[in-house]
Amino acid sequence: MSKPKSPRKVGDREALAVATAIRGSAYKLNLVAGLIRGRKVGEALNILTFSKKAMAIDVRKVLASAVANAENNHNLDVDALVVQEASVGKAIMMKRFTPRARGRAARIEKPFSRLRVVVRELGDDAAEATGKDRA
Questions:
Q1: CATH number of the domain that 57 lies in?
Q2: Which of 113, 118, 128, 131 could covalently link to 26 via disulfide, CB atoms 3.0 to 4.6 Å apart?
Q3: How far apart are CA 49 and CA 57, in angstroms?
Q4: Taking the model in full, what pTM does it have?
Q5: pLDDT at res. 1
Q6: Are the C-beta atoms of residues 88 and 113 closer than 8 Å to each other?
Q7: Could you give the CA distance from residue 92 to residue 61 in angstroms, rounded to a whole number?
Q8: 89-120 b/e (C-beta count within 10 Å ≥ 16 → b)
Q9: 134: in domain
């Protein structure tokens, strides 16, 4: 008597990786995630490797995890993978206090963010999915 298997959260030719607690604001993380949306995985990894943004390190780790999931868990071709989705959301807000003048205190908020990366294997419909080969 085990639980029924939960359905997949992505399509048959897709793989997913999620980071639930990336230290930094969702705005800064979304700037980096926007660099890789819709690009091939090799190109996206190069962009993240040489980016000057500090959040690029965490995004690269999540993308590498999605590629590893695609290869090991779903038997997808790594060379044909494209970043289908890179969505960002807010997670927890860590709250701290610092002393100020005249016995007051000021709140310091340290945000955390979530990142969800979905990679998709392109097949025969590669030109339609990327939209780059339009004449």
A1: 3.90.470.10
A2: 113
A3: 7
A4: 0.85
A5: 72
A6: yes
A7: 20
A8: eebeeeeeeeeeeeeeeeeeeebbbbbbbbbb
A9: no
Range of the domain at 39: 14-123
Q: How many domains does the chain have?
A: 1
Low-confidence ranges of the chain (pLDDT < 70): 124-135
Q: Is 63 domain-assigned?
A: yes
> What confidence score (pLDDT) does residue 124 get?
65
Measured distance CA(13)–CA(74) in Å, rounded: 8
How is residue 18 written in tokens? 């999620």
- Which of 117, 33, 49, 30 lies closest to 82 in space, CA to CA? 117
Q: Please compute, for residue 88, the number of CA atoms within 13 A of its CA located in the half-sphere on the CB side.
A: 22
| Residues β-bridged to residue 85 | 118
Structural domain includes residue 26: yes
Residues 6+ apart with CB under 8 A from 83: 36, 37, 38, 39, 40, 41, 44, 63, 117, 118, 119
